[in-house]
Design a protein that fits this description.
The protein is α+β, with helices and mostly antiparallel strands and 488 residues long. It folds into 2 domains: 255 residues, Aminohydrolase, N-terminal nucleophile (Ntn) domain (Glutamine Phosphoribosylpyrophosphate, subunit 1, domain 1, 4-Layer Sandwich); 189 residues, Rossmann fold (3-Layer(aba) Sandwich). Strand 23, helix 13 and strand 24 form a beta-alpha-beta unit. Helix 4 crosses helix 5, helix 9 crosses helix 10 and helix 9 runs antiparallel to helix 15.
Length: 488
């Protein structure tokens, strides 16, 4: 048993401006591939999942005897180069890209998390959020455990390491029965690859086949990029074990009400991914078509907020008969950076990322389609930019319902103070954004567009119906928010 951790700490990355979209926790990737260049496969898999997290990236590799871990703050290409990938040799690998929802933006919270246990070492990557993390952490600390990070991922890894008696499989199964919340987890030891998913199935996790190798990923687009064929999803409450004997599974926890986060369909997942047998580009285009049926308006041009609003904008244009065009050009190289803009550039705000095409929008009545509004910061700037560029009217159309309730399952909207729709009516939001009109897609239209059933999803951020039981503190906050929404 040998663990090598190649660690480097740099300053955390900061966002260039506050976005109106919710941010999701992470992307996870794993491969069991004797004879494969597993570190390179994981690198490209993480590259495909980069949209799920831009704060840190990490890869751990095992060769049957030892485990090597490298992780750092930054985007995947900033963290890894040819030299680092060449040092990660083995036949099993796990990888992670992170956006923090629990635990601050610091190196210690980056993943994979590695732990030493009775018979070896494990490296663990996690997407989601635990509701009972505090209680489990206190229990582990009372039994002598020490923590380097503030994330719930280290709590999960610590629970498994402490529970190991005969095998990592039994320890993982025992730990699953103690976890409350949303989790899609991949675990690597020197000789095995395991995957587990919470019994509600809040976060996605797919299984793929690459020749004789097995691949695990948050989204099918990561399977595509490495040439793996999608086999199926990890089932809610299921544990997958992959080793020299192949793949086997065990239903460890009884499945609960299906509760896939609906924002996977709306925004989180890449449009070329498939979830619940549905292509997300097609589903988002249908959202735009439903929106055009529900909320028509006389206008000259439909534009989308690039890139996530574009499929719905195309659908809106197709259904309404209003021409679709590009009105905003996105600088895809801004993202997150080590260099902070000075005060002059900071005042430009969203213009660092989006620039209007004045020749296209001048004198036009615009329908501007976006997937969601959370805080309202960017939307307000967008309206101003378009009107300054000559648009005579700006009508905002949102291809999801208003986000009125916080999320406790792995999205960075865990308080109502972050949600503009929790404090304002739709009319008040439109006025505050200075839009000529603002309309949202209905619940019914959203569900129809997904091609799934309403009962397949967690819709708590829209309706306040939380499928996984909340703590007393969280439940109290929810009840207070509900009373405020009734008053408005």
């Amino acid at each position: 048993m040998k663990l090598i951790a190649m660690e480097k700490s740099v300053s955390p990355l900061d966002s260039d401006f506050s976005d109106d979209r919710p941010e999701e926790a992470c992307g996870v990737f794993g491969v069991y591939g004797p004879g494969q260049d597993v570190s390179r496969l994981t690198y490209f898999g993480l590259h495909a999942l980069q949209h799920r997290g831009q704060e840190s990236a990490g890869i751990a590799v095992a060769d049957g005897e030892s485990t090597v871990v490298f992780k750092d703050m930054g985007l995947v290409p900033q963290v890894f180069d040819e030299r680092k990938l060449a040092s990660l040799q083995g036949h099993i690998a796990v990888g992670h890209v992170r956006y923090s929802t629990t635990g601050s933006t610091r190196w210690e919270n980056s993943q994979p998390i590695h732990k030493v246990y009775k018979n070896g070492t494990l490296a663990l990557v996690h997407n989601g959020n635990l509701l009972n993390s505090r209680e489990l952490r206190q229990e582990l600390m009372a039994n002598g455990s020490r923590f380097r990070s503030t994330s719930d991922t280290e709590v999960i890894a610590g629970m498994i390491a402490k529970a190991v008696d005969d095998s990592i499989e039994t320890a993982t199964a025992a730990t699953m029965k103690r976890l409350l919340g949303a989790y899609a987890i991949i675990i690597m030891t020197e000789s095995q690859l395991l995957a587990i998913r919470d019994p509600y199935g809040v976060r996605p996790l797919s299984i793929g086949k690459l020749g004789a190798s097995w691949v695990l990923a948050s989204e099918t687009c990561a399977l595509d990029i490495v040439g793996a064929t999608y086999e199926r999803d990890v089932k809610p409450g299921e544990m997958i074990v992959i080793d020299e004997r192949g793949l086997r599974s065990e239903q460890v926890v009884t499945p609960k009400k299906p509760s896939l986060c609906v924002f996977e369909f709306i925004y989180f997942a890449r449009p070329d991914s498939r979830i619940n047998s549905q292509n997300l580009y097609v589903a988002r285009k249908r959202m735009g078509m439903e929106l055009a049926k529900e909320e028509p308006i006389e206008a000259d041009l439909v534009i989308g907020l690039p890139d996530s609003g574009t499929p719905a904008a195309i659908g809106y244009a197709q259904e309404s008969g209003i021409p679709f065009g590009e009105g905003l050009i996105k600088n895809r190289y801004v993202g997150r950076t080590f260099i902070q803009p000075d005060e002059t550039l900071r005042q430009l705000g969203v213009k660092l990322k989006l620039n209007p095409l004045s020749e296209v929008i001048e004198g036009k009545r615009l329908v501007v389609v976006d997937d969601s509004i959370v805080r309202g910061n960017t939307s307000r700037q967008i309206v101003n930019i378009l009107k300054e560029a000559g648009a005579t009217e700006v009508h905002l159309r949102i291809s999801s319902p208003p986000v009125t309730f916080p999320c406790f399952y792995g999205i960075d909207t865990d308080s109502e103070g972050q949600l503009i729709a929790a404090a304002k009516t739709v009319e008040e939001i439109g006025e505050s954004l200075r839009a000529d009109s603002l309309k949202y897609l209905s619940f019914e239209g959203l569900v129809r567009a997904t091609g799934c059933r309403r009962e397949d999803f967690c819709l708590a951020c829209f309706d306040g119906e939380y499928p996984i039981p909340l703590s007393e503190e969280q439940e109290l906050g929810k009840l207070v928010l509900e009373s405020e929404i009734v008053k408005k």
